[in-house]
């Protein structure tokens, strides 16, 4: 299991200047190596007798450019530009590894056939982190001991250890990050033990959750968690600060200070949202052994008129956090298809069409009446239990009774997708 702990560091003014210059040199090296790769790709993308007669680069065909050739050129780079000698060699190699990973993600599709975007040239200030790939070993560039972080080529600086590193873990990497409110170090730690998910025979309580915009989530037991809307509440204040920035001269010191102030506002919004997600995820994991959620297409939902509210709620980020917290605690998280969860009746299964404005589910066949989101949460739970092969005796949980194996569901026709 690999975890990452983020701590704030307190470098001196000289160390801040050194780290900023390090980021700038790594940014320039990134841009040069990316340009080298793109030039090689343009000159070798087709055979010489099949090139376009309208526009093609001319000259000698360059040698193959990849991570290993660019890594071997680091020695020549330090000869031509002596300032690169003041950067830890492994940090420069990791910078090239990041570029190589982005390059391969663009050229080669993954298992699902999707590819990433083309790597971009970075403007001034866009590169915000560099890595020491080894910590607390004889040849490491970073050493963390007793609240002090020693970085090669930079020096010692205090670390605010607001959370102790758990025992049994080995320090793997140290990433120095420049954020709007200061400098941080992200320590990656690893433990050989891997938590195993709870056995199906041991599952006692199960719940289905339906995320929405009226309530952040509603459980199959009828409990609701109110939505926060961190961005919506801060939007008027953010708009005032952005108007102040528009009145300042571009590139001036006052404009840069105002940019940093706006960046801090966005940072605060993200931290409020993340803290809310973690608290909600921990509360669910502590109460239930199996949690059923919808496998939503967030990118598709974000193209609708409700895009700002959907992105402010950050359902995808919450499900990722819930999955990570559940893995550490051995709780099972089951993702099910969202098709028809709001339209079908959780009691009899008949389809009850309704628009988003109708918040009450009323079945014309069995007479079931409940909140729309609670009905969807019960459908989500039923689908998850059928996938893993359990039967829930009542929607309040399994209780003390042992779970019972169930038969696979027969195929159902797909119905329209409901957002909430």
Automatic annotation (TrEMBL):
Signal peptide: none annotated. GO terms for molecular function: DNA binding; metal ion binding. Pfam families: Cas12f1-like_TNB (PF07282), HTH_OrfB_IS605 (PF12323), OrfB_IS605 (PF01385). Residues 1-44 form the Transposase putative helix-turn-helix domain. Residues 315-380 form the Cas12f1-like TNB domain. The keyword Hydrolase does not apply. The keyword RNA-binding does not apply. Residues 200-303 form the Probable transposase IS891/IS1136/IS1341 domain. Keywords: DNA recombination, DNA-binding, Metal-binding, Transposition, Zinc. GO terms for biological process: DNA recombination; transposition. In the C-terminal section; belongs to the transposase 35 family. In the N-terminal section; belongs to the transposase 2 family. This is Transposase, IS605 family. It comes from Coleofasciculus chthonoplastes PCC 7420.
